[in-house]
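cron nightly-structures :: item 1 of 1
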Amino acid sequence: ETYKEFLKTDFPYIPYPTNIDYFWTLVEKGKQLRELHLMESTELNTLITQFPIQGSNIVENINFEFIDNEDSGKVYINDSQYFGNVPLIAQNFIVGGYQPAEKWLAERKNKKLSNDDIIHYQRMIVALTKTAYLMDEIDKIIVL
């Protein structure tokens, strides 16, 4: 009660479960989000991107190239190498004011990506994509 007015203007609204089914559905979605964000979900093992070109693996200049009529594109790390089939929703996903996919690569500028780095980035793209879909599912549940 003391902070009720502040919560209305300064913090996000957290809906109170109106019934037990609604509560357990949100619990399951929350579990899925937690597993994705901690990189523990088995769904991360099904990669949706490719890294098809052999080369130096050095991150020189990062550039996203949108593919017309598709919801994805290529994220170039140098003049010839790229991650293909990167969903636009993952590339543009914002957390805390920045884009994790872009920031992760930017932090590795002028460095060589190891095989583990390449797989980690691809798993991160899966996590961001699935997070966006889960958020949409949660929004639909909340409307009910």
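cron nightly-structures :: done
Helices lie at 4-10, 20-37, 88-91, 100-106, 115-143.
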